[in-house]
């Protein structure tokens, strides 16, 4: 009898002979199906577990190397994948370009503008009516259907100043 540890070193012809002699020897059928193309269908008839045949029949994927902690893109790799609309990266690059720590203001992009009615109300409660009016004027442009409402709030804040 063939030792299961040695079954992988047998040639396809020897495995065929073993399978012919012992048709229910599933391990020999599996190794034969791995070595010879087209024998997985025949092996499926004699296998108890179809998952073994499924593993043989499906194509094996190469494992992709994943980045480990501490590995970063090279500048060439970053240039290949970066896009113009990556606003997060561009704002970080602007900060990094100023290594001296100068307090020159960095222009905010239009997508990062936070102007909500809630923020304006918070400014009103803090007594910062000018900032609240600035937010209300932005909200008028953003929501023209509520412009009359925001205009009355601006007038109310101007009276309290």
Give a short synopsis of this structure:
The chain has nine helices and no strands. It has helices at residues 12-21, 26-35, 40-46, 50-57, 75-81, 87-96, 117-126, 129-142, 147-160.
Pattern of helices and strands: HHHHHHHHH
Low-confidence stretches: 104-109
Q: Alpha-carbon distance between the termini?
A: 100 Å
Largest sheet: none
The assembly state of the depicted protein chains is single chain
Q: How much strand?
A: under 5%
Number of helices: 9
On the 0-100 scale, what is the average pLDDT? 76
Shape designation:
elongated
Number of strand segments:
0
> Helix content range of the residues, please?
55-70%
Structural class call reads mainly alpha
Radius of gyration: 35 Å
């Amino acid at each position: 009898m063939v030792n299961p540890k040695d079954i992988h070193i047998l040639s396809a012809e020897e495995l065929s002979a073993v399978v012919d002699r012992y048709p229910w020897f599933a391990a020999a059928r599996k190794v034969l199906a791995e070595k010879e193309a087209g024998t997985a269908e025949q092996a499926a008839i004699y296998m108890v577990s179809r998952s073994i045949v499924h593993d043989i029949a499906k194509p094996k994927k190469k494992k992709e190397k994943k980045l480990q902690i501490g590995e970063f893109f090279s500048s060439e790799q970053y240039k290949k994948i970066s896009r113009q609309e990556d606003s997060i990266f561009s704002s970080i690059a602007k900060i990094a370009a100023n290594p001296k720590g100068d307090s020159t203001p960095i222009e905010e992009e239009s997508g990062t503008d936070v102007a909500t009615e809630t923020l304006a109300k918070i400014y009103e409660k803090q007594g910062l009516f000018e900032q609240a009016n600035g937010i209300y004027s932005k909200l008028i442009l953003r929501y023209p259907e509520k412009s009359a409402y925001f205009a009355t709030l601006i007038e109310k804040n101007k009276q309290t100043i």
